[in-house]
Amino acid sequence: MAKAKDLYAILGLQRTATPDDIRKAYRKLARQHHPDVNPGSKPAEERFKDISLAHDVLANADKRKLYDEFGAESLQSGFDPQRAREYRRWAESGHGFSFRREGGGAGSGGAAGAADFGFGEWPPRGGRRRAAPEDERDFGDILREMFGGGGGRGEPAEGVGPRDVEYPIEVDFLDALKGTKTAVTVRRPVPCTTCKGSGRVGRRGCTECGGSGTVEKREKLNVTIPAGVGEGARVRVAGKGGIGPAGAAGDLYFVVKVRPHPVLQRDGQDLSIEVPITVSEAVLGATITVPTPQGPVQLKVPPGSQSGQRLRLRGRGAPDPKGGAAGDLYVRLMVQVPRNGGARGLEEALAAIERAYGENPRAHLEL
Length: 367
Prior knowledge:
Blueprint: H1 7-10, H2 19-33, H3 42-58, H4 61-70, H5 81-92, E1 100-103, E2 113-116, H6 139-147, E3 165-171, H7 173-178, E4 180-191, E5 200-201, E6 204-205, E7 214-225, E8 234-237, E9 252-258, E10 265-267, E11 270-278, H8 279-284, E12 286-290, E13 297-301, E14 310-313, E15 329-336, H9 346-356
Helix pairs in contact: 2-3
């Protein structure tokens, strides 16, 4: 299995990096590797996915703390830090059990890896199980809490029914706006056929499921992402969740993670974009071409426009997944001065512009 990539290394950072370091590194790399800048380049697309994942985790204080403590294990779907710490304490206490579970997310946004809890040999040499103290829970209990399934004592846990399952799915910013279909391979818990969900075969623990009563089944699904979905939206696939002892299945929910866009920003259904304009366009007014998710449109820049001024394009924002009106696209004008300030004839023109101000533009600026 491939070794998990280090998120700090992906952004070219040390573990001591500040939030500002993370933000600057992400912006630089995102602009360089975004699929819109590298159309048709699979390596650039994969690199951008890694960059987006690294930013998503390291820019979030809580996620970064867990990643620093547990590494790639913390990126797995359904990861529970409290139980992971419990496993660690259990392992360090000298108990014996070997259990390895393949972990990973779904689609392009999942993080694949393996959680190896390293409990050594089970049963101990000689085939006899060492008695546990009164205040210590059976390992089957811990497994059942972690992964669901039977009670690990020869009987299915009471009240265990079909379970809903969540998986993260990462989509491109523009795909989230326009809607898309994607094939995703997921792993979902189903009852172990060897022990029939009990976690036991005779008096011994079931080696097929590690005593949990459940095993993971891989299944490929075609998922439709509705147009206009935002960060954190949940896409339901009925009947594809965990299966209870009675055979009834829960639902599968894909939790949407939207990759940031290097140019567009989103606030609810509204979008915003910064568009450079020349000094003459700002002073005299102009009609400029502005890219939108629906295609380029013509926008009139009023004479005397100021840098930072916002203009609205109605209905050019994100569509409403529920069928309501689409949001608006706000264009923020950014006056861009010539880089070659000493160009011939430019000084005279600038002097004329300076005289046109009439007064110092900072005359009324005070705290």
